[in-house]
Amino acid sequence: xxxxxxxxxxxxxxxxxxxxxxxxxxxxxxxxxxxxxxxxxxxxxxxxxxxxxxxxxxxxxxxxxxxxxxxxxxxxxxxxxxxxxxxxxxxxxxxxxxxxxxxxxxxxxxxxxxxxxxxxxxxxxxxxxxxxxxxxxxxxxxxxxxxxxxxxxxxxxxxxxxxxxxxxxxxxxxxxxxxxxxxxxxxxxxxxxxxxxxxxxxxxxxxxxxxxxxxxxxxxxxxxxxxxxxxxxxxxxxxxxxxxxxxxxxxxxxxxxxxxxxxxxxxxxxxxxxxxxxxxxxxxxxxxxxxxxxxxxxxxxxxxxxxxxxxxxxxxxxxxxxxxxxxxxxxxxxxxxxxxxxxxxxxxxxxxxxxxxxxxxxxx
Length: 364
Known about the structure:
Elements (H helix, E strand, L loop, with lengths): L22 H8 L8 E7 L4 E5 L2 E7 L1 H6 L11 E6 L4 E7 L6 E4 L7 E5 L4 E7 L6 H13 L3 E7 L7 H7 L1 H4 L4 E3 L5 H9 L6 E6 L5 H9 L24 E4 L5 E4 L14 H6 L3 H4 L16 H7 L5 H44 L2
Parallel strand pairs: 3-5, 8-9, 8-11, 9-10, 11-13
Antiparallel strand pairs: 1-2, 1-4, 2-3, 4-5, 6-7, 12-13
């Protein structure tokens, strides 16, 4: 079932177990104040409303005023979240509560120092799609992987458009450190066996999000997996030879007989929204070298006895990966410092409001 065709769906078609509903989620709901209301999963986020798939059909819902006031932008529902809602006639409803999030993929919002944006939640696998043309960029893949690992989501690197001519030795050398950390698949919509292999990697009840830059073919891949036109695509640009960016929203798509797919718009930038620098060590295959450093707090720059620098000098670690490591670490430190300052200011504001309220109460 595609949510694009929600008006044609019969309510009985919405089997929430296929969308990932399970006993743990049911227990969370039963412990909430809204256990008697219906629940559903956010399928599409529009500017002012949400499409919610439920056992009663697909509803167009708005947020309750309390949720608008109490929740920050990154805490409000995103694609994949499970919510409870008050239904009304004509497929309308009000979202009154959201179950606690799990396995949520975030990114730092463009143009912001600390504001993060929720991309998708309750994700089991994240397919980082890169096309084997001018889009191929292992540095971009690395930052996706760091954020995905931080969210406790299983990452998979998908090298798409494998029918193109490319320097195989160069590509495999560039991603050798990533190959030791996660599965790497080659796909092409012109090679059915590769699509079958990708489909088999998504189990029933699992949710898989597809992320990557514009024009890498995420939407075409999803259509091939579903064996039908579920999401809108466009032809390759004649001037650049690259795919045109098509998706403009994050959207749930049900893959027949298997899991749930989430299509996402292409991104030019993917800023890290994490304060866990150790994740970088693991993704970039630095951790094993770092264990042999003389100093436990080695920054891997100028300290004596640095095993990471030694690996770099011996050619065991590429200069590109080493430079990427320090760039990502600087980005995480900057985000962490800004986040701490943001929390400090929020704490100070809360204390000020509390003091003002206390003085008013005393003056009565």
